[in-house]
Write a structure and sequence with these properties.
2 domains; 9 helices; alpha+beta; HupE / UreJ protein; transmembrane; Immunoglobulin-like; membrane; elongated; 340 residues; 58% helix; 11 strands
């Protein structure tokens, strides 16, 4: 390859990296708010009478203009009571279904004008539970009489994949780990340690055994990415540290922290009371599958590039600076939000 063509490739990659930083820095707050799902839960307390909880994401002081609708005759028994809980608006009231809910269509009005999803969960007095995910392209669905456990598993599995796919900070941490490890064995050890750790805290936090405020957790996740990015630079300079010698230890420690971030998303979704273990397992498997697909994409991209050119060591340092810049911005943004 000629020096001119090689320089052109480097400039192209550099321009792409700058665009990535600008996109992540400029769009991350909006994406974070838009991607949080809405949540509608109905619990049958008496025959035909349901308590309703409707949680919608907020953008600043305003909530998304969403509202549930039923195709059949439904009347409110109590007024709607609203209260804000940080980044969401929670509304509660009671309804009576003049026509049985099974067979009706439930929709989220206004969902098609957003970029978010909505999870609908109905618990009937006989112990049956129905869970379904609504999307902007499919904002309504018919309520069946019963739901197969496989439907619950599929719903939470999809949410797990979608959460990791939209979790730019989690993916950036995994990418940083991939830059600091060398060899298949160490990659497997490091990613396994990260997976085991966040699975532990995801489970414990979701079932309520351990709780941490979301704001400090999100700030620490950003700082964890920044730390690994600085360690990549140290490694390329020939220095050594705990992270460089035993990356799996650091991956496990920060994996515990990232697990609380995953749990926050799952708590927002809610868990079906009769299928908590199944929903939890399915969500976790979805997260892991999404993570493995991301790792496979990185390895495939690196392998393809190496077949064309020899990747210079400076490219690794440049990647670390890109990751560190984005992580530093997130750290400042999230720490500032904690003290507002």
């Amino acid at each position: 390859m000629s020096p001119v063509r090689f320089l052109a490739l480097l400039l192209r990659f550099g321009r792409a990296a700058l665009l990535l930083v600008a996109a992540c820095v400029g769009a991350s707050p909006a994406l974070t708010h838009e991607m949080r799902p809405a949540f509608l839960e109905l619990r049958e307390e008496n025959p035909g009478e349901f308590s309703v909880t409707f949680k919608t994401p907020m953008q600043g002081d305003f909530r998304l203009a969403l509202s549930p609708r039923f195709s059949g005759a439904v009347e409110n028994l109590t007024p709607v009571v609203s209260h804000a809980t940080g980044d969401a608006m929670v509304q509660t009231w009671r309804i009576t279904a003049i026509e049985p809910l099974p067979g009706q269509k439930v929709s989220i009005e206004g969902l098609s004008q957003t970029m978010t999803d909505a999870l609908v969960r109905i618990e009937f007095a006989d112990g049956g539970t129905w869970v379904e995910r609504l999307t902007p392209s499919a904002p309504d669905v018919a309520i069946p009489a019963t739901q197969n456990p496989w439907d619950v598993a599929a719903t939470y599995f999809r949410h797990g994949i979608e959460h990791i796919a939209s979790g730019i900070d989690h993916l950036l941490f995994v990418a940083a780990l991939m830059l600091i490890v060398r060899g298949w064995r160490r990659i497997v050890e490091t990613i396994t340690a990260f997976t085991v750790a966040h699975s532990i805290t995801l489970t414990l936090a979701t079932i309520g055994w351990i709780t941490l405020p979301s704001a400090p957790v999100e700030a620490m996740i950003a700082l964890s990415i920044l730390l690994v990015a600085t360690e990549i630079v140290r490694m390329e300079r020939g220095q050594s540290s705990l992270t460089i010698r035993w990356p799996w230890v650091v991956a496990f420690a920060f994996g515990l922290l990232h697990g609380f971030g995953f749990a926050g998303a799952l708590v927002d979704l809610g868990l079906p009371r009769g299928d908590i273990p199944l929903a939890l397992l399915s969500f976790n498997i979805g997260v892991e599958i999404g993570q493995l697909l991301f790792i496979a994409a990185i390895l495939l991209a690196v392998h393809s590039i190496r077949r064309i050119i020899t990747i210079p060591r400076r490219a690794i340092v440049a990647s670390a600076y890109v990751i560190g810049t984005v992580a530093a911005f997130w750290s400042i943004e999230r720490l500032d939000a904690m003290f507002l």
